[in-house]
Amino acid sequence: MPELPEVETTRRGLAPHVEGRVITGVLLRRPDLRWPIPPEVAASLPGQRVLGVRRRAKYLLLDTAPGSALLHLGMSGMLRVLPAATPVETHDHVDIALDSGRVLRFTDPRRFGCLLWQPAGETHDLLQRLGPEPLSDDFHAQYLYQRSRDRKAPIKTFLMDQAVVVGVGNIYAAESLFRAGIAPGRAAGSISRERYARLVSAVKTILAHAITRGGTTLRDFLNPDGAPGYFEQELFVYGREGEACRTCGRTIRDGRMGNRATAWCGGCQT
Ligand SMILES: [Zn+2]
To answer: How far apart are CA 145 and CA 193, in angstroms?
Structure first.
C-alpha cells in the first residue's frame, strides 16, 4: 500500500510534468473507482491550467481555477506521466491529457483509490478533521503531549490516528516507536514530554529518509514500473517478528494492536 513517502515521491515526480500544463481532455474508462467519479472531473478540468500539485495526508490535489481533482492511490493505485500513445492496459482507468502530448494515467488494479472533486475555496469532507502533517512545524512534542493527556489508547494506535497526525502508517509507526525506545502498547497518556520529543524526532527522521529513498527512483518516473518503498534491510522491527533485534539481539515480538500487526523489541522499547 502506498504510504505517505510514496505519495510524496509521486507528487514530486509528477509536479514538473504537470504543473503549468493545460488539461486538454479527461478520459474515464469506468464511472467509478472506490466511489463514483463526480461529473465535475470530466466537465470542469478540460481547458484548465494545472496551478499546482499538492499533497494532504495521502491525498494528491491537482489544483485548477474552478477546483481540484482529489486523488487517493488506495491499496494499489499508481499515477504516471506517459506519452499519449502508450497502449492502455486492463487497470488503466483514467487518462488526464496534457498539452505536452502526455497523459497523466491512473492505474489501480484493486480500485480502492479514488478520483473526486473539490470546488475552489472548499475543503472536501475527506480532508476535514485531519491532524497536522508529520513533517510540518505544527507536529511537535508539546502538541502530541497535550493531545495525549487522558488517552488510554496504546501509543501506536494513537500515533496512527489521522486526527492526531496524518500519514504515519503501520511501518512508520513501528519503526518510529523502536527508534524512540517506546513500547507500542504503552498508554499514550502515560508518556512524558521528553519521550514525545524523541518520538516526534523519530517520525520526522524516518519519513524524511523514506522520501529521500523514494527520490532516488524519480529518474525512472516516466517508466511504467515500480513504486518506491522503504528498503527492507533498513527496518528494525517491522516484518522482523521472530528475528533477532539488530540492537540488543533479543527476539522481536509480535502481537496485534488496534487490529494491526505490531512488532517490537521488549529489550529496547519500554
Ligand atoms: Zn532490542
So the answer is: 6
> What's the 179 CA to ligand 1 centre distance in angstroms?
10
pLDDT at res. 254: 93
Kindly state the helix (H) or strand (E) to which residue 97 belongs, with its residue range: strand 92-98
The DSSP bridge pattern shows strands 78-83 and 92-98 to be: unpaired
Asked whether 247 and 236 are in contact (CB, 8 A), the reply is yes
The answer to whether the CB of 100 falls within 8 A of the CB of 21 is yes
In the reported structure, the alpha carbon of residue 208 is separated from the centroid of ligand 1 by a whole-number distance in angstroms of: 23
Query: Model pTM greater than 0.85?
Result: yes
Residue 251 Cα to ligand 1 middle (Å): 8
- Contacts for 144 with CB less than 8 Å, ≥ 6 apart: 164, 165, 196, 199, 200
Quick: pLDDT tens for 174-204. 999 999 999 999 999 999 999 999 999 999 9
As a whole number, the mean pLDDT across the chain is: 91
Task: Tell me the catalytic residues.
Answer: 2-3, 58, 260
When pLDDT is cut at 50, 70 and 90, the band that residue 243 belongs to is very high
Euclidean distance between CA atoms 150 and 159, whole angstroms? 15
- DSSP-derived letter for residue 67 is E
Ligand 1 mean position, distance from CA 262 (Å): 15
Which helix (H) or strand (E) segment holds residue 203: the answer is helix 193-215
